Amino acid sequence: MKLLITVLLMSVWVTAAAVAAPLGPDDARHLLNRAGLGASIAEVDTYSRLTRAQATERLLVVRGGVAPEPGWVEEPHVSPGRLRTLDAEARARLQAERAERGFELREWWLRQMLVTPDPLRERMTLFWHNHFVSGMQKVQSPQMMYRQNVLLREHALGNFRELLHAVARDPAMVRYLDSALNRKGQPNENFARELMELFTLGEGNYTEQDVKEVARAFTGWSIDAPTGEFVFRAAQHDDGPKTVLGRQGNFGGDDVLDILLDRPETATFIAEKLWREFVSPKPAPAEVARIAAALRGSGYDIRAALRVLFNSDAFYAPAHRGVLVKSPVDLVVGTLRQFEFVVPDELPFVLAMGQFGQVLFAPPNVKGWPGGELWINATTLLRRKQLLDTLFQERMAAGPVRMGMVAAATPAATRQARARQAMAQVRFDGEIWLSRTNGVPLERVVLAVAPVHTAGSGSGGMNYLRELVLDPAYQLK
Amino acid sequence: MDRRGFIRAMGAAAAVTWLPLPAGAAPLRGYERLLVLIELKGGNDGLNTVIPYTDAEYYRLRPGIAIPANQVLQLDGQTGLNPELLPLMELWRSGELALVQNVGYPRPNLSHFRSIEIWETAAGSSEYLDAGWLTRTFAASPLQPGTAADGVVVGGAELGPLAGVTSRAVTLVDPEQFLRQSRLAVPGGPAATNASLAHVLRVEQTVTDAASRLRADRVFATPFPAGGFGNAVRTAAQVAASGAGVPVIKLVLNGFDTHVGQVARQARLLKELADGLVALKSAFTELGLWDSTLVMTYAEFGRRPRQNQSGGTDHGTASVHMVTGGRVRGGLYGAAPDLTRLDSAGNVQHAVDFRALYATVLERWWGMDAAGILRGRYAPLDLIRA
């Protein structure tokens, strides 16, 4: 008994010491790779001197600043009605323009991820993009997708209640989940179902009857065709009595959102998703419950949930290091940020991320990117390694490669040519970077867990660095 | 409530019962028999592939793009082939070409992306599954150890029916490039307790297994057609010639999304398909493998019966698919589309569920029980000879 108490006291003491002590470089790197988007040696150095709590607070502060957006984002949107009046040629031109703007949007967001002073806010913007999924394939409007992205960023570290209410009337979402087709007497259940299954309660916490009733509550939520703005059409709204999760009333859509937010399952569902994003693919119910309690107890303050998460022992536990598969964003942005590559043009990396299975603004379906182990198959693994091999080749440090502009027949071929040329201008000065590691073993700087292959261990230098980024462990964070 | 089963490949690893093959079956059985899938990407127009040339409604709906009755290659009194498929008539006459008409699924989705996902995961219309139907097959009933790969995808980026966490499939544009790139994969390493690391290591192993056993040096007497699809067929033949035990090869022929100027575009594609299939038969016959090869086309959907304003067709639903091989019982299967009973979007209603084609592969070709893998019972088609 005495021994047990001693052990308990000691573990409390150890924990308290870990909380009060500076993070040190390994924990700082772990935090910045998971909560941020990868970090330079200087950033790791700064965070390594902070305590857990200080580091968390520093990450949670939004400094602001957004990369310059494409010039067309405020252009009026092209309504489906106007689209129908166009002849085949004009329609094809518009489709091509939309495709091109999709790429510009991806380049813009990637640039934002590379330069942002608020990497946690960017990561959470991506998290919400993969939670409140909308995709260009169906929304068919780069302007709407841009505005949704701005909305997600604005609330990324804000309040989930406000975010949910805002997303439900976001034009891209209204279009993506067919809300505009949901009318009194002709319900469309698409939004109602996903709202409960994917956005709030999670599967198994509502009935098919709830789906029908919730759909009725959202009838009339629509888009004004000429402007592309959200509009509530009272004439199409079913204002009769409804029963949602056992509660009765003449509910409208906002009432339903509040009912869903009142359910404890919603906080648990979000907390578990945060756990999977930041800690481990295996949820630990007690830890998830703590995060959920913080979310619910704070009236859905997202920062409150993240504060609990990033201050927890579980987040830093050795058992949770290197257990997350790097997403294409993690791999590309993380590598470019950590090694401070000079990137004059984002296009080759947008294309690479697409080849790895992550086309931003176009998740595969309403469930989003499933992620985890599914990021890695024989094809994507070879492509990931091909990119890393290219990035860490000797020539990246050499002078610019001169290439003539390639005359290309199609937009896709033009993009490929531009990407090849841009890739040749990407710079990484390996020797300078290595000199700044100050003798810290390279595998600790580069990998979250020990390398699988240790042929060149201890040899240091660019060859060893290349070996480490091609090691299987580099695919993990 | 259980509209969606979020099953993963491992979850689908239900026990598989191997069915006894009929007496007098081929010496090769189970996964020794090869499946070649050809994706007609974009959604081939079935109505102008296998043509109801006596149906007045067909000509009424397609005044600008219907294939004139006097040009079709007649298969029977009502049904004809697109004239560009002339090279396939030899397969038809030798009784090795099965045409399955009106293949689709209930509550069809008209998005390319979503509908091909439904086909490739063998999912219901509003069901989202992570693993392809073939990945689920190999999870339920694994291949012999030492096989180069579960499947090889030639010329396309997506693993499609071979996708999923447990996938042991590789993609290659050309074998030399794959062998070159595969040097970046490193096999071996200590057993990992970390599940994510174990997964990466398994994929590294998949790449090196495939690279060590796939070869590209077979010389064929068969002439392969010029162009992308002809090259893909050549690569497929190289994979088969490697004797590496790969049971599935997937090819892609892209460009069937014929919204504009369909007649010329589809003509070019169908000719490419027909020439490729003829070369495939010839090369696989050279290898002595034609009798143990089953070739099947698939696509996300067919196209709208009524032509659009641009001399093309918009996204539709059910379509015709081809099955051929040395043991295929040729003929027409399914039912001709009923153009007088279109759905509210003006599309045909399917007659054969696409999962019945998969059940045919699983039960009649590989001799295993399909119900667990397909998450339901679909009657196989009787198009494989013993």
List the SSEs and their pairings.
The complex is a heterodimer of chains A (477) and B (386).
Chain A: H1 2-20, H2 24-34, H3 41-48, H4 52-60, H5 80-85, H6 88-115, H7 119-129, H8 136-139, H9 142-155, H10 160-168, H11 171-176, H12 190-199, H13 208-217, E1 221-224, E2 229-232, E3 242-244, E4 247-249, H14 253-262, H15 264-278, H16 285-297, H17 302-310, H18 313-316, H19 328-338, H20 347-355, H21 378-391, H22 411-423, H23 430-435, H24 442-446, H25 461-470
Antiparallel strand pairs in A: 1-2, 3-4
Helix pairs in contact in A: 2-3, 4-17, 7-9, 9-10, 12-13, 15-16, 16-17, 20-22
Chain B: E1 34-41, E2 50-52, H1 56-61, E3 73-74, E4 79-81, H2 89-93, E5 97-104, H3 112-121, H4 133-140, E6 151-154, E7 169-172, H5 175-181, H6 195-213, H7 228-241, E8 248-254, H8 262-286, E9 293-298, E10 319-324, E11 331-334, E12 352-353, H9 354-365, H10 371-374
Helix pairs in contact in B: 7-8
Structure description:
The complex is a heterodimer of chains A (477) and B (386). With 477 residues, chain A is mainly alpha-helical. Among the domains of chain A are: 2-60, no CATH class; 264-320; 328-475, no CATH class. Chain A contains 25 helices and four strands. Chain A has helices at 2-20, 24-34, 41-48, 52-60, 80-85, 88-115, 119-129, 136-139, 142-155, 160-168, 171-176, 190-199, 208-217, 253-262, 264-278, 285-297, 302-310, 313-316, 328-338, 347-355, 378-391, 411-423, 430-435, 442-446, 461-470; strands spanning 221-224, 229-232, 242-244, 247-249. In chain A, helix 2 packs across helix 3, helix 9 runs antiparallel to helix 10 (160-168) and helix 20 packs across helix 22. The two termini of chain A are 40 Å apart. Chain B is globular. In chain B, the strands form two sheets. In chain B, strands 1, 5, 6, 7, 8, 9, 10, 11 and 12 form a nine-stranded mixed β-sheet that branches. A three-stranded antiparallel β-sheet of chain B has the order 2-4-3, with no helix packed on it. In chain B, helix 7 packs parallel to helix 8 (262-286). Chain B has one domain (26-175, 221-334, 347-374): Alkaline Phosphatase, subunit A.
